UniProtKB/TrEMBL annotation:
One of its GO terms (biological process) is amino acid activation for nonribosomal peptide biosynthetic process. This is PKD domain-containing protein. Coiled coil: none annotated. It comes from the Bacteria. It holds the Pfam family Big_7. Residues 228-296 form the PEGA domain. Residues 500-617 form the Pyrrolo-quinoline quinone repeat domain. It comes from candidate division TA06 bacterium B3_TA06. Residues 143-211 form the PKD domain. SMART domains: PQQ.
Amino acid sequence: MNVFKKEWRRWGALGVLAAVFLLMPLACGRDKEPPVVTITSPADGGTVSGYVSITVEATDDDSVASVTLLINDFEVHTVDTSYLEYEWNTLELEEGSTHTIKATALDPSDNEGESEIVTVTVMQPSDPPDTPDAPQGPSAGFVGDALTFRARTADPDGDSISFQFDWGDGSVPDWTPYVASGETVTEQKSFQSEGTYHVKVRAKDTYGVTSAFSPGLTVVISPLSSTGSIQANSVPTGAEIWLDGTNTGKTTNALLDKIAPGERTVSLRKEGYADYQAKVTVVAEQTAEVNATLERIGEVIWQYETGGEILSSPAIGSGGMILFGSSDNKFYAVTSEGNPFKDFSTGDAVKSSPAVASDGKIHFGSDDVYIYALHSDIVKYWDYKTEAYVSSSPAIGSDGTIYVGSGDGNLWALTSEGKFKWKYITGNDVTSSAAIGTDGTIYVGSDDNYLYAINPADGSEKWSYKTGGKVSSSPAIDADGTVYFGSQDRYFYALNPDSTLKWSYETGGKVNSSPAIGEDGTIYVGSDDNYLYAFTPAGTLKWQYETGGFVRSSPAVGANGTVYFGSVDSYIYAVRSDGTLKWRYETASPVITSSPAIGAGGTIYCGSTDHYIYALSSDSPGLASSPWPKFCHDNRNTGRTGP
């Protein structure tokens, strides 16, 4: 013990000093340097618009634990990496307002670095493009394959548009070259690793104002080792082969190789034939087969000749009778087999389309200034004299009231017995056919440039909406009460039930066609610029299909989504819901205002100025179950929402 004490007295003090010297480097080496934080975009003092990409970089002599972004001193985003990117929506901010952007970063020792403050001013040079829908393209592929994706949107100002895809793999592709508003861009992408990717796209206009990113398209990329194939055959050959909703670029008969195992959908499309679709189970290292005999459609079942141009749109009456007028001054009833049943003579051309009441009685107008009501056996029930030609088509209220416009500028309301109830005076000819909403409100256009909403009880005006041209287009009414119609000012309009503008879209010509609504809410309408347009309920252009002449015929939507309409180029068209041609039939003269009806068995009925009414075959099982699938709402042409 004495020895120990002696040694402690000898080395104890030195030991303490040694320990202190050993620990000093640890204390002195503790990290006290904060990260360096830089906002790389946007620039200080600049202007911003649309969706702004804010980027921040942080560096540290050790590492960066987190980066936080603050806008106007509010934390908006934090990441646990040294690089931060954030999409800032400035569209809802006040024009000319200034905002501060700052970023902070922490290292593992909790040292905090702070960027210089960036001040920007919001200046929107234009409205942003509409947010695109999810990109179109394959939902599956293989590592290294070149996959094709498509995107489309519209710009409310009509500006050209550029697109940027987000492939979901961390890469940042360049913006595409600019294209016209509403056009489709195509980009290819090869994924280098297997996995699930979410592909999105955004758009910007020529001012650099950017839209939000679209919803994502999920794409599953598989390794090349696990593949099968599909042999697609058809009679006749030459049909486009679509796999899971995407055109493969091949036509039958052909082999599709390197297909991911699992259930796949094969569709075959050939102009003039019904689309064929089959579910196929693909097994690795095996070949599945699809063998199809395609059904010919778009052919004449029968045609019935009259003595004049047919501008009237057919209705389907009791027993499937096809009812329509002709410029030979007659009204016709033809059986569903194309045999003559009876005709009725008036004093002038019958351009008006018939409306059939629930009791089978038929109502229509004539250029001889009369409104007619016929029994289902085509015997006159009553007539009523207006003060000018009647080319618009009657609408029938739920109580049987007949509403019809005349060249005398009036909207007439008559009882089901043909007695006068009231008339509403507009400022010019009424060639637009009335439409009746769920609450009974009557909507009708006039050549005085207005669309009117009329009270059914007494004919008083609820409201009127002024456009820049004549309104001969007849309204369509959506389930939420939105009123769609066109004007000769080149615009297509969507109004709320209280007359406020929901949206409008400028086409390249007068809009005399009347709109129809598909089961998915898509609105279809033609224009004198030769196009049929398809819009989302929000007013975004989905696609446009070009014909060789004015599209004044109003579209009808089949239960399978096919859209049927005529054009002044003399064709009756069938276009798929994605804007691709299914078939077309050439008549001998322009199809001007006659609009198709779709029978329960899928027969398409439409007139032409070549004096014929045509019955054409289709693969639609009937009329779409939508709020307003055709001109005057339904095959009876009642012009009224509901059954």
